[in-house]
Amino acid sequence: MGGKFFYLLVASTLIAYYIYRPLPENVEEPWKLMLLDAGFRSLIHAATIVEKLGLGHYMDVINLYTIATYTPPTSDEKVIVTDTKFGHVPVRLYIPTKQSDVLKRAMIFIHGGGWCIGSATMKSYDLLSRWTSERLNAVVVSVDYRLAPKYRFPVAFEDAYSVAKYFLQSSILEKYNVDASRIGIAGDSAGGNLAAAVTQQLLDDPEVKAKFKIQALFYPGLQTIDLELPSYQDNKNMPILPKTLLIRFLSEYITSDESFFNALETNQHVHAEFNHLFKFVNWSNWLPERFKKGHVYTDPSHRNFKIGHKYPDLLDPRMAPLLIEDIKLRGLPLTYVITCQYDVLRDDGIIYVSRLRKAGVQVTHEHVDNAVHGVITFLTGPFALNIGQRMANNYIEWLNKNL
Ligand SMILES: *[C@@H]1O[C@H](CO)[C@@H](O)[C@H](O)[C@H]1NC(C)=O
After folding, report:
1. Which UniProt keywords are present, listed alphabetically (predicted)?
2. How far, in Å, are 5, 8, 10, 15, 35 from residue 1 at the CA level?
3. pTM for this prediction
């Protein structure tokens, strides 16, 4: 009896030790977040073990999360939901049933997951698109682009781009009764990266007549040349997206070369030849004072690394939308950016807000002072987060006013 009790005590102490993580004081629902985080960390550990034993790819294990949250396309009296294809790319399409005389608005949505995991068919993304469609009486196209490591850069971008181009054809807009002047694009995390890149590249595309009225970026990743911005330093061990996982996603998107992962970890991946690009992500210039606190800017261009030149992809604005000239930002549409305080990607979003405003683009910036990365993916189920639901509501309200 005593022995059993002892083992139970040891086991529960170990479990509590594993789950418990000190979190910032102002974070809501801390225990829920800790449990979510423990779940993700277990998945990361399992992935590492599977990889070490040579039993499978790391990302196949992480991607079990996607499979576990799959939901089939389900229509109801308000929205017809179907899985179909636009060109060669699978999409989940939401068409509101409500009849009206005026043409409908439309949104293209691109899910997150570090270019390596995730799907439009995940329960929370499905719900977000359904709400958007219902409340705006809008057509929503949620894109299931191909994922790394099987398909590396620029496949995810090209899939998202081709869906946008397909949808923006006048014959297709007519087919779905969509108003060509009221279409937007949105995405979270890696999906925010893709949405920003697609919006930029469409500006220069002579084949596309309809342009986006708005873009909405949820805590997007927008650059890859400086992985030591203040937010990277402050939040490297925060729940959901620790820096090592982000770096793993990033390196898988670009190459199978393991030395690249190591170069990214030490921020030694940009060759001196590309020093001129650092001005685009210079946090000393672009971050408001309160985000710089406790950090001293050291010019990254004083480093002299010889690794980055092997990966020109890193410097491609389709991979890193922040690396585009100011003049090219000018034509961008009204932009909604959400950033979260406890997120490695926080400063990417804030720098983009600063640069867009400087270029004369109208931006609504919603900075959430008490959130970690990725909360929009927890909209439903036992671990649904209030803060994610509020974020979704604010976003849809903003869309309703501005699209
Ligand atoms: C970054 O900005 C600071 C402050 O404006 C400036 O002194 C520095 O030269 C800049 N560095 C780069 C690489 O742009």
Report:
1. Disulfide bond, Hydrolase, Signal
2. 6, 11, 14, 21, 30
3. 0.96
